[in-house]
């Protein structure tokens, strides 16, 4: 598909890897924030599939996915507030050094989710780019992929 953007490739990659990323995590706080990220990734994958025409654009499902992302995005400060660690955690210590910036990036994800336009596939394809960009913007500084 020639129109496949980097953002879309990125988001579907995240959704695909989410299922097994947190096997063996013992710390409950780390588990909770990983579960939240997995829910975000799954919802983003649903939207990305619709944007790419892999699945039909379904208004109710798209709205549900958007709501999952904005709800979980709003929970990010509470989920990460405690500097919990686990050998499996991919959270960078910079999160707690640059807390204001980190939470601003969560807010950016929420805004991008709320700005999604489901009018048609073209509109979704355009607006999902900002959502994908919001994931990368935060992961770049605050996630150390293992
Ligand atoms: C505010 C910062 C931030 C934003 C925005 C963000 N993430 Fe994350 N994400 C993280 C951090 C930090 C981790 C690592 C958490 C850990 O391992 O303790 C993570 C982990 C993940 C994981 C791995 C979860 C697991 O089970 O190990 C996935 C998948 C993921 N993010 C997907 C996404 C997607 C998709 C988006 C955008 C729609 C997104 N993230 C937006 C910070 C963010």
From TrEMBL:
Binding residues for heme c: 135, 138-139
A cellular component annotation (GO) from this entry: periplasmic space
Domain of life where this protein originates: Bacteria
Annotated GO biological process: electron transport chain
SUPFAM superfamilies: Cytochromes
InterPro entries: Cyt_c/b562, Cyt_c_II, Cyt_c_prime
Ranges that cross the membrane: none
Pfam families the record matches: Cytochrom_C_2
Keywords: Electron transport, Heme, Iron, Metal-binding, Signal, Transport
Gene Ontology MF terms in the entry: electron transfer activity; heme binding; iron ion binding
Post-translational modification: Binds 1 heme group per subunit.
Stretch forming the signal peptide: 1-21
Name used for this protein in its record: Cytochrome c556
Source organism of the structure: Shimia abyssi
